[in-house]
Amino acid sequence: MPSFYSKKDLFFQLFENQNCLELTQLPYFSDHSKETFTLVLEAAEQIAEKSLYPIFREMDRQEPQLVDGKIRIHPAMGTIIRKFGEDGWINAIFPYEEGGQQLPWVIHLAAGFIFQASNYSASVFPFLTTGAANLIRTFGSKELKEKFTPKMFAGKWQGTMALTEPDAGSSLSDLTTTATPASISGVYRIKGQKIYISAGDHDACENIIHLMLARIEGAPSGTKGISLFVVPKIRLDGAPNDVLTQGIYHKMGYKGAPIAHLMMGSQEECEGYLVGEAHQGLKYMFQMMNEARLGVGMNAVAIATAAFQASLAYAKERPQGRKISEKDLSKPQVPIIEHSDVKRMLLFQKSVTEGALALLIYCGILSDKIAQETSAAKKLKMEALLDLLTPIAKSYPSEMGVKSTSMAVQVLGGAGYTTDFPVEQYFRESRIHPIHEGTTGIHGLDLLGRKVWLQEGLGWKTLQQEIQHSLDQVKSIQELNDLGHSFEEIFLKFNHSAGELLFKRNLGPEKFLADATLFLEASGILCVGWMWIKQAISAQKAISSGALEQSFYLGKIETARYFMEYELVKILGLIPRFHAASYPTVTMEKDWF
Amino acid sequence: MPSFYSKKDLFFQLFENQNCLELTQLPYFSDHSKETFTLVLEAAEQIAEKSLYPIFREMDRQEPQLVDGKIRIHPAMGTIIRKFGEDGWINAIFPYEEGGQQLPWVIHLAAGFIFQASNYSASVFPFLTTGAANLIRTFGSKELKEKFTPKMFAGKWQGTMALTEPDAGSSLSDLTTTATPASISGVYRIKGQKIYISAGDHDACENIIHLMLARIEGAPSGTKGISLFVVPKIRLDGAPNDVLTQGIYHKMGYKGAPIAHLMMGSQEECEGYLVGEAHQGLKYMFQMMNEARLGVGMNAVAIATAAFQASLAYAKERPQGRKISEKDLSKPQVPIIEHSDVKRMLLFQKSVTEGALALLIYCGILSDKIAQETSAAKKLKMEALLDLLTPIAKSYPSEMGVKSTSMAVQVLGGAGYTTDFPVEQYFRESRIHPIHEGTTGIHGLDLLGRKVWLQEGLGWKTLQQEIQHSLDQVKSIQELNDLGHSFEEIFLKFNHSAGELLFKRNLGPEKFLADATLFLEASGILCVGWMWIKQAISAQKAISSGALEQSFYLGKIETARYFMEYELVKILGLIPRFHAASYPTVTMEKDWF
C-alpha cells in the first residue's frame, strides 16, 4: 500500500518537536502516556489502511445520489461509521463519566489527520458527529444529552452542523429560518431552508441529527437573535420530522461525502428542540468553532500530505532525463527526484505540509492546556494566543493545500493529470478548504479586524514573545546560525510593516481592512517559518545527541533552510501593501471591470 | 448567454493597445484591414456562441470512451470540426496559393482565444490539425502536401502531434519508436508506442494523421537522431495502417478532448512517410514549437478569462453581507462586488488575464512581423526577442491560469465548488497548461540556460530596451506618474538581481540552474507588469482624447495600479534567491525526504 502520511514525522511532531506528553502531567489526562497515545494512533492507522484508503478512489467515482428523496452513499460507509462508534472514536475526547476516554484533543486531531489523509470523504462523517454531539453535551439539557448523544457516540446516528441558507452564507446575521414555540416547553416548529449541509442526509445511519441555527419569532435581528436547535430527521417516537432532502450538490471533490439542501417545515411539522438558552445559538456555535476551524486546517494538511507522499514515491521511481551536468546519453535515465527542480517541488510540499502540521499540533496542545488551566491569568493569555492563531492555522493550510496538491500534480506531469494516479483527486479535494468554515477573506477580517486587538493585543504580543523565544534559542545553536539569521531578518521586517499597518486603523474599516487577507497570508508564512525554526532546533538536538535515523533530521534542517530561503521571503512581496498609500481594491468601481 | 470573454478588451488589445493594423502595411497582409479582422473575430464569436459554448458542460460530463478499439467523442464534434474546415479556419493563416487567407497569425490566435474561452475541449481539434498540417506544408514533399493537407484543411481528417512515449516525456532524446526503411523511397515501417496523444483517435473525422517522431535504424542517439513522419491511421488506399488505440486516458479536465495511447506496428504493418530530411525531426518540430507554446499560453488565458467573466457576473448579482462600515442590519445586503476583498479577487483575475493576453498578442504580432521582415539584422533581433519571450508567454499564463481560476472558485464560495456553476470546470481544465508543451520547469531551464545567452544576450538586451522605452513613455505622462515610479523601482531591483544571478553560471549548471523556475516566474511578472504599463498608457491616451466609455479606461488604469502594488511586488519575494549562497534544492538528498 502506498503511504499516505509519514508516521515518523507525526511522532516527531508530537513527542519530539512539541512535547505533548506534558499534557499527561495534568490531572485530567493523568491516565494517559506515550503508550496510550501510540496505541490510539496505531489503531487509527489500522482503520485507515484496512478500511478507508482502499475505497478512497471508489468513493470519488461512485458519487452519492439522491434517490426517491433519500441520499445513497457508498455501501461500505455504514460499517465504517459504526466501527468509528464502537471503537470509541466519536466520543474519545469526552470525560469518562460520559463514556469517553478523556483523550487529549490534540491526539484526537492527530488521529483525524491519519483518517483524513487516507480518505477525506470518509473521515467527514464521524468528525461531524463529534462536533454536533459536543454542542449538545456542552450546552444542552440533561434530557437532550441522554436522548441524543448515546446513539451519536455509537455511530448509529449522524450529527450535522446546519448553518448556511440560500441567502445567508458568510453573512450569518441574515439567517431567516424560523422557530415558533410549540405547546411543549423547549419544543419549537422549525421552518426554513438550509444548504450545503455536509452529511445532511444519507442511508448509512438510522437517523440524522441536525444542530441547526434558527431565529425564534420576535428575536432581535442580526446575530444576537439566533438560537440553536436539535432537529432530528426522524423523531424519537420514530415518526418522520418534516425535514425534506430537497437536493444534493454535486461537487468537484470529496465526492464521497454528500452535501444536502434541506427543507424544514413544508408541512408545518418540523420539530426542533432548543439547546441551552434562546438567542445564544451563535455564541454556542462559536465556542466550538475554534476547534472546527483547526479541524479544517488539519483536513487541508492531511490531503496535502497524502499528495506529497504520492508525488514523493513517484519521483523516487520514475526515471526521466539525466542530471543536468550529464551529457552522455548512453547513461541510463535517473529517477526524477535527482533533478533540483523536482526536489524544489518536493521541498515545497514537505515544508508546507510538515510546517502546517506543526502549527496545528501546537494549537492542539494549547487548546488542551487551556481546558485544564486553573490560573485565570495564564488561561487568558493562552486563550488570546489560540484565538489569534486560529484564523491563521485554518487559512494557511487551506490556501497552501491547494498549491501543495497542485505541486504534487506537477511532479507527476502528464500522469498527474490523469485519473491513473490519485494526485488529481487530492487537488480537487483540497480546493474546498479555503471556502468552508469561513472563507479566507472572512478569516483575514477576523484576524486583522478583531483578533489582533482583543485584550489590548494580548494574543498578538504573546505570539511575538513566543517567536522571540524560539529565535533566541536558535541563535544559540551554532549549526543553525544561518537559519536564525534568515528568520530574524524577515521577522523584523514583518513586525515593522505590521506596526505601520495597525496605525491605518485610523483610516476607517474600509481602507484599514482592505488588505486583511494579505496580512493573514503574511502572518501564516511567519508562523510556519517559526514552526520550522522549532523543528530545526529539535532536529539539531537529535543529531547532536547521536540519534538514529540522522537522515530524517538532516532532512528537517534542510527543509527548514528551504522554507526560509524560498517561502519566508515571500513576506517581502506582501508587506509593501502594509505601507501603501493607495487602495485600488477600494477605489476600483464595479462598472470599471 | 453568459459572456465568456470581453470583446471590448480583445479589440482594445489588438487595435488600441497594440496596433495590429501595422501588419496590413506589409505586402503579404495588404488585402487585410480592420474590417476583415473584425469580420474574422465576429465570425469566431458566432461559432463560439452558437456551437461551442452550448456543449461546454456536456462535453465534460459525457467523456470520450474507448469502445471496441475506437474512441467515441461527443456527437456534435463531427459537425463542428467540419464547420471549422469549411469556413476556412484550419488553413486561414496559410498563403492564398495553398487555399489559405494569408490571415496574420495574431488574428488567428485571437480567434482561437474566443473558441478556447467558450469551450476549450472543442477548440483543441482544429488547433491540432492546423499545427500538424503546417509541419507537412513547411517541411514535407509536394506529394505529401497534396495527399494529406487538403482533407486536413477541410476538417475531414484530424491532425495530431505524436511525441511522448512511456519512457520519454520531457526527455525527448530517449525516444525509442523506430522507423525501418521499406522498399519504396520515403516509406518506413514504424514500431513503437506513443502516449498522451491529444485527439489521437476519435470518430468525428474520417482519418487521423499523426505527425510522429521516430528514430530511423542506425540514427545517432539523442535528439539528433530523430526524424519526423506522417503516420495516418488509415492509409491512402483505405486500408488500416496498424495503428492501434491501446487505451484512453481519463483526466481531471478538458475531458471532451480524448487523449490516446497508441501502438504502432504490432503487426509490423505500420507505414510512415518521412517528412523532409532524415534526422531533422526535432528541429522541424521546434520550428513550430514557438507558435504551439504561445498557443498553449493563449489556451490558459482563455480559460482563465472565461472563469473571470463567470465570477464577475456572479459577484455583480449575488447579494451577501453589507459594506464593512455599515452596521445597520435592516439595510439590504449588497452584491458581493461591493466588498474590497472580492474586488481584490476580481482585480487579480482581471490583471492576470488581460495582462497575459496583452503579452501573447505582443508575441503574435512579433511573430507575424518576423515572418515578413526583409532586413536580416532586424529579423535577427526580433527573433531573439520572441525566442526569449516564448517560455515566459507560455508559462506565466499557464501557472497563473491555475491561480486565477482558483480565485474565480473562491469568489463564488461554496457555489463555486459545486457543478452548478462552471468555475470548477475551468479550474480543472486550467491545470493541464503548466504540464503540456514543456513543463514550467523545462521552460525555466530553457529561459535561463539557453534563451538568455543566445546571440550574446541579444534577446535579453532587446527586452530591456523595449521595457525601458515604455518606462520612458509612462514617466512623461503626469497622470501615470505613480505607476511609472512603482514599475521602475521593481524593474531596477530585478535587473540588479538578475545580473547577480547570471554571474552564477560560473558555479556550473547544477547550481546555476537550480532556481531557473523562479527566474522564469519573476520574468513573467515583470513582462506582464510591462504590459500593464503599456495598457495604462493607451488608456490614458484614450481618456485624454475624450474617448467614450471612460469607465473601461479608468478600469484599465486602476487594474494597472493593482498589478504594480499587489503582483509586481511579488518579485521582491523571488529575487533573494538570485543572490543566495546556499542551495537547498541541490544539497537536499533523496533519502532525507
UniProtKB/TrEMBL annotation, chains A, B:
UniProt domain Acyl-CoA oxidase/dehydrogenase middle: residue ranges: 161-263
Residue ranges of domain Acyl-CoA dehydrogenase/oxidase C-terminal in the record: 280-330, 376-445
Q: Name one Pfam family in it.
A: Acyl-CoA_dh_C
Q: Which InterPro entries match?
A: Acyl-CoA_dh-like_C_dom (IPR025878), Acyl-CoA_Oxase/DH_mid-dom (IPR006091), Acyl-CoA_Oxase/DH_mid-dom_sf (IPR046373), AcylCo_DH-like_C (IPR036250), AcylCo_DH/oxidase_C (IPR009075), AcylCoA_DH/ox_N (IPR013786), AcylCoA_DH/ox_N_sf (IPR037069), AcylCoA_DH/oxidase_NM_dom_sf (IPR009100)
Q: Per the database record, which ranges form the Acetyl-CoA dehydrogenase-like C-terminal domain?
A: 466-587
Cofactors named for this entry: FAD
Domain Acyl-CoA dehydrogenase/oxidase N-terminal, residue spans: 38-156
Q: Name one GO molecular function term.
A: oxidoreductase activity, acting on the CH-CH group of donors
Keywords of the record? FAD, Flavoprotein, Oxidoreductase
Q: Which domain of life is it from?
A: Bacteria
Q: Which family does it belong to?
A: Belongs to the acyl-CoA dehydrogenase family.
| Name of the protein in question | Butyryl-CoA dehydrogenase
What is the scientific name of the source organism? Algoriphagus aquaeductus
